Structure formats: C-alpha cells, structure tokens
Amino acid sequence: MSTRNNGKRYNDDFRKMVVDLYHSGSSVKDLSSEYGVSNVTIYKWIKELTPVEGTDGKEITPKEVDAIQKENLRLKQELEILKKAMAIFAQK
C-alpha cells in the first residue's frame, strides 16, 4: 500500500524561499539538486509565486488572479440568482 502525496509536501514558506533563491540568481537545476525538488515543480512554483504589476502599481501573483476570477464568477452567479428572484417577486 503506497501513501499518496496530495501536493502538500512542501509548505508555503519553503516554496517562497526556493522562488526567492531563483530570483536572486540561482539556477533551477542547482535548486533542484540542492533541495530535492524536481525542475518541473520549481518552475510551477515560480509561475505561481512570481508577482506581476497590476494597473494600479500593486503586485499580484497568478494564484491571486485565479482566486479573484473565481470570486468574480461566484458573485456574477449570485447576482443572476438575485435578478431572477426579483423578477419572480415583482410578478406577485
């Protein structure tokens, strides 16, 4: 029976440290061999944790953008439900 790694093997601080080391000049290959993390995983962390500058000058990570988009979709769905409810109550 094998144990399954659900992607939670490394904590957020460790991931951020590896990404910071990458940004400070360390190569992915060196980080991979030093910390025992695959190159693909490190590249994924870099993509997730590297902030980009928004229109208002604030930095935001792609992970935060995804969260905002999910929340926006949820709010749009709630608004549609409320609009339908208002139409039903307006008929009564």
UniProtKB/TrEMBL annotation:
Domain of life: Bacteria
Alphabetized Pfam families for the sequence: HTH_Tnp_1
Signal peptide (UniProt feature, chain positions): none
Gene Ontology terms describing biological process: DNA transposition
One Gene Ontology molecular-function label: DNA binding
Protein name in UniProt: Transposase
